[in-house]
Give the backbone structure.
Amino acid sequence: MHLPKLCPSLPTNSTDAYIAQLRQIPVLSAQEESELAERYYYHQDLEAAKKLIIANLRFVVHIAQTYMGYGLALADLIQEGNIGLMKAVKRFDPKVGVRLISFAVHWIKAEIQEFILKNWRIVKIATTKAQRKLFFNIRRMKSRLGWFNAKEIKAVADDLGVKPEAVREMESRLAAHDISLDIGAEDRDEANGPTYPLIDTYFEDSRYDPARLLEASDSAESGQERLQGALTNLDPRAQTIIRERWLGHPKTTLQELANRYQVSAERVRQLEKKAIKDLRLAIEQADAC
């Protein structure tokens, strides 16, 4: 639905004036709203849709104000809520027998919540439906500052229909804070460690460190020796299956081996599975010695 200049402008530095302007817009009666909804629903009358939206903008402000505890500007929350209201008007069926705002609450909250999740932290804190529910309810349900005790965790979990572990995890996520990777010397206390940016301190590239390369080389050689030693404990057919299925290139297919040994491909798969199990056991025994 394209509705240019659908509602009063919302400058970020005059939110109070915008809200005061909305209070001057008369509220639609149920009959007036029904008539406008039918004009848009049946005849795509954009002027009717515009009137429906403008008349309900005050309710968007009320909903947006309930989300002011996340450190985001009220003006931004209102703008996102207005988008949700527009989507609701587009989908509103006047035959359902409810007022538009009752239908639109879901859409308004959904847009505001999505905006909060995208902008509250650098790393998205909630991705699944259950995590979103936890994120927006834990803050509301806290009866005191600090961490939940065991009783409170159980009460929250029971109320939201989730496991206590999920409540603890989300509470931990909420307590975490973003740290800039570019903090320099001027932003850090020299007594607390190096003054290099965090991106250098914690994300050092050690792939070409000679000591690490030598360690990796020794580890690879040792692994090869253990593998070859374990292979000698297998019977010749099992050795061939492992070498050609896992160590060779290109790899031999199950059917090719089945044709060679004149058995079914399923039988070769069973032999391969047993050989891998025996190989793993032999390597573990060698490591234990």
About this structure: DSSP finds 13 helices and no strands in the chain. The radius of gyration is 32 Å. Residues 1-12, 185-191 have pLDDT under 50 and may be disordered. The first helix runs from residue 15 to 23.
